């Protein structure tokens, strides 16, 4: 079952008209894909299995993987028989993900700050800290509003975010990596509101060095509760890791939020 794309008319022009940000160039670069190529397919599959056991979705439920990257979570969901759509801003990620497309799985380039439909999906998933990149609080509200709007009444959001306290305690200030002859010099720091990850790249095969800086907002459980409540989502459960253990603010590596759209 393919997604009805009627409500995504003029999609490309809307996406490109959205505000620029550091993530637009970085997530679409070959260096980004090389640096993060180690992400575990097994970890993704195990996480999805645990979520499905927890959520017990109906057969053929409509699911959205928002910020899907190259599709590692979406393809596993589709393999379980669900109707899955993946959306991501990075054209290179969508191009890579489309090798997995099937009757039950489609991928589209889209910016989550731009609306993506009304009352369509039973589930929206936002994995691996694919949020908190934006310049303004208004943009955060835009995304949560879009998620709430695209969910059917009673639909479920699962948002997987970093846990601020744990990330502060385990921050690695410097790291060096060499991958296929490309050297990555990584430095990390934080201020009151954000985590920063500066990546300087020495590539002997191209002019350089290249430099990118990731920035992720320090959003707490309370911040998400307020965002959800503002847009008609009720927080039900909070998990602290990919095994879905209970959340502890000091010791949990992740902040995984299970919320539901209000029915009225």
Describe the SSE topology.
Layout: H1 11-17, H2 22-26, H3 30-35, H4 41-55, E1 62-66, H5 72-79, E2 83-88, H6 91-97, E3 105-109, E4 121-126, H7 137-150, E5 151-162, H8 164-169, E6 174-179, E7 182-190, E8 194-203, E9 210-217, H9 221-230, E10 233-239, E11 254-261
Parallel strand pairs: 1-2, 1-4, 2-3, 4-5
Antiparallel strand pairs: 5-11, 6-7, 7-8, 8-9, 10-11
Helix pairs in contact: 4-5
Description:
This protein has 264 residues and is of the alpha/beta class. The protein folds into two domains: 5-162 and 219-261, Rossmann fold (3-Layer(aba) Sandwich); 167-214, no CATH class. 30% of the residues lie in helices and 31% in strands. The chain contains nine helices and eleven strands. It has helices spanning 11-17, 22-26, 30-35, 41-55, 72-79, 91-97, 137-150, 164-169, 221-230, and strands at residues 62-66, 83-88, 105-109, 121-126, 151-162, 174-179, 182-190, 194-203, 210-217, 233-239, 254-261. It has a seven-stranded mixed sheet, with helices on both faces. Strands 6-7-8-9 form a four-stranded antiparallel sheet. β7 (182-190) and β8 form a beta hairpin. α4 packs across α5 (72-79). The longest helix has 15 residues, at 41-55. The chain is globular, with a radius of gyration of 18 Å. The model is unreliable at 7-13 (pLDDT under 50).
């Amino acid at each position: 079952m393919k997604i009805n794309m009627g409500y995504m008319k003029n999609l490309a022009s809307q996406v490109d008209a959205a505000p620029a940000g550091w993530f637009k160039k970085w997530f679409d670069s070959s260096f980004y894909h090389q640096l993060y190529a180690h992400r575990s397919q097994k970890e993704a599959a195990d996480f999805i299995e645990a979520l499905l056991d927890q959520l017990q979705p109906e057969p053929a439920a409509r699911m959205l993987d928002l910020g899907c990257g190259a599709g590692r979570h979406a393809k596993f969901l589709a393999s379980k028989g669900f109707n899955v759509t993946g959306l991501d801003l990075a054209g290179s990620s969508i191009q890579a993900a489309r090798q997995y497309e099937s009757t039950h799985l489609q991928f589209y380039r889209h910016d989550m700050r731009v609306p993506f439909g009304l009352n369509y999906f039973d589930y929206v998933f936002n994995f691996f800290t694919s949020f908190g990149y934006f310049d303004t609080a208004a943009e955060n509200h835009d995304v949560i509003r879009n998620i709430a709007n695209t969910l059917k009444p009673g639909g479920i959001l699962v948002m997987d975010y970093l846990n601020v306290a744990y990330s502060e305690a385990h921050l690695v200030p410097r790291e060096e990596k060499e991958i296929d002859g490309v050297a990555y010099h990584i430095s990390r720091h934080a201020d009151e509101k954000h985590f920063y990850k500066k990546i300087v790249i020495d590539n002997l095969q191209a002019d350089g060095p290249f430099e990118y800086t990731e920035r992720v907002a320090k959003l707490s459980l309370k911040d998400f509760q307020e965002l959800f409540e503002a847009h008609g989502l009720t927080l039900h459960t909070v998990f602290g890791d990919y095994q879905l253990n209970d959340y502890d603010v000091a010791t949990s590596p992740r902040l995984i939020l299970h919320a539901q759209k209000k029915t009225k």
